[in-house]
């Protein structure tokens, strides 16, 4: 999809963004922190390089909470309605963004690579068939196609210079 644009925005329509590439990876996370932060059963994030994500209208605010690692998890929200648009997680910092799939104009186009932290999911919730599920996290090298794993490695290397 390089060259094509995927668009999305907040609930009130003030904040709009564009993504200029396919996601590196997509996780459906059921950890307790994601449940608390979203007020839902899980969160579906597609991760992209921040350089491929652009806010095209509106304003955002930043809210910092602690991630499971203890590092800062920054949630970027529409300044008017408060819709969470994307997050910056400690491992990739400000160089990567976990875009909330539900804010895309066409969210059905995105399928998770993995369902994670299923050990913490609500016990009545059924997991989708055909999508790898993990009690905690997974090794991206074992799951992602080589081209997407290479993008992840490059982004991680930028986030943590030697």
How many H/I helices?
3
Instruction: Tell me the radius of gyration.
Output: 15 Å
How far apart, in Å, are the first and last alpha carbons? 31 Å
Query: How many separate domains?
Result: 1
In N-to-C order, the SSE pattern is: EEEHEEEEEEEHH
Strand order of the largest sheet: 6-7-8-9-4-3-10
Specify the CATH architecture: Alpha-Beta Complex
Molecular shape: globular
Largest sheet: 7 strands, mixed
How many E-type strands? 10
Mean pLDDT: 93
CATH topology: glutathione-dependent formaldehyde- activating enzyme (gfa)
Spans of 5+ residues with little confidence (pLDDT < 50)?
none
Output the CATH homologous superfamily: glutathione-dependent formaldehyde- activating enzyme (gfa)
Strand portion: 25-35%
The CATH class:
Alpha Beta
Helix content: 10-25%
Query: Which structural class should the secondary elements be placed in?
Result: alpha+beta
Short characterization:
With 162 residues, the chain is α+β, with helices and mostly antiparallel strands. The chain contains 3 helices and 10 strands; from the N terminus they run βββαβββββββαα.
Secondary structure elements and their pairing?
Elements lengths: L5 E4 L6 E4 L5 E5 L2 H7 L4 E7 L3 E5 L2 E7 L5 E7 L5 E5 L7 E5 L13 E3 L23 H4 L2 H14 L3
Parallel strand pairs: 3-10
Antiparallel strand pairs: 1-2, 2-5, 3-4, 4-9, 6-7, 7-8, 8-9
Please tell me about this protein's structure.
The protein has a single domain (6-159), classed as Alpha-Beta Complex (glutathione-dependent formaldehyde- activating enzyme (gfa)). Strand 1 and strand 2 (16-19) form a beta hairpin. The strands form two sheets. It has a seven-stranded mixed beta sheet with strand order 6-7-8-9-4-3-10. It has a three-stranded antiparallel beta sheet with strand order 1-2-5, with no helix packed on it. The longest helix is centred in the C-terminal third of the chain and has 14 residues, at 146-159. The model has no long low-confidence stretch (mean pLDDT 93). With 162 residues, it is α+β, with helices and mostly antiparallel strands. The chain is globular, with a radius of gyration of 15 Å. 15% of the residues lie in helices and 32% in strands. The chain is built from three helices and ten strands.
